[in-house]
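Q&A FORM
Asked by: J.P.
Topic: structure of Porin

PROVIDED:
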Amino acid sequence: MNIKSLLLGSAAALIAVSGARAADAVVVAEPEPAEYVKICDVYGAGYYYIPGTETCLRIGGYVRYDIGGGDVGSFDGARAENQLGDPKLQDTWAKNTRFTLKTWTGQETELGTLKTYTETRIQFGNSNGYGDEFGNDAHNKGITLNFAWIQLGGLRVGKDESAFNTFIGYAGEVIQDTLVPYGGFDTNVVQYYFDGGNGFSAVVSLEEGSSDAGAATFDGAGNYLFNATSGNDTIDSYVPDVVGGVKYTQGWGTITGVASYDSTWEEWTGKVRLDVKASDALTLWIMGGYGSDDHIDRNFYKQWGGNWAVWGGGTYKFNEKTSFNAQVSADDAKNVGVAANVAYDIVPGFTVTGEVDYNHDGKFGDADDRNWVNADKKNSVGGILRFQRSF
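REPLIED BY: S.T.
REPLY: Here is the structure written out as tokens.
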């Protein structure tokens, strides 16, 4: 072996050893597995699994801007001159901005599906002179908890709207659907829903009522009762209000009936409804109500005037983006309401609705039986332009 070969061999050995030591010095850490949010499609679109749990969560809501004009284009209630005594205070637009946050959860258990729903609203706007002691100023209207309930299987408890309305359905797709009122809304509930299959379902609901459900009225003796239409200004016993309903649904439509008992005023009220799918574009509905008035003209459930009332209307879809909605209503006290609008989806999730409303107060001027929905004149006309982004 000559010196040249020896040197070359030594250099190669040194390079190999150095390379091995350099390779040993570089340690590449293994990536930790990432826990991605998983889609949950069991309860519909928009749900995902809360990481580390079997609970599915959905978050949604909407941002809404309303512009109301005229005598019935108000979303705070009546534009009654006698509230402040100065009709000039109502000679302006009624505007309201609302942010609504909604949450839904769902989870399968050995006792059935465990669900929750919440809806919280934050609003800013003016009151158009109604219920505002210092005039028609624009202001923050606070935060309201509109829904917060828990449901396991068919049992539901918590804050909801009365089954007298939710089970039978609201009075059409118009904005001002209570020109002739059809029942109280906000209440705490203990409910049980029964699904018998073949289109048959039923509900039984024990309810508390709410002092915010109605406006001013008078009793049979002509005594002024503020918010007496709520039916539950004073809850003075363990006896709840009771609502029961049955429903039959088929491809052509639905027949529904509900009955209620207001325990505070000991009054009974009922409603029946027929929904018909006339075609792919046209749906029609009609609803009638009847209630007793032995102790008071209006209670938490029977908020219309007199014993009976009727509502009817429908929706016609011109195309995927545009629909026409209408409602006509009347009651035993000769109150009449007409509402119609056109709703247009500019893009998915953003809808503009323009509505025109008419209200006739059949007892205007009679202090013991006024409509109190729009009490500043016998015949009122107005409208609302609504912008809403839903997500």
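FOLLOW-UP: Residues 3-25 form the longest helix (23 residues).
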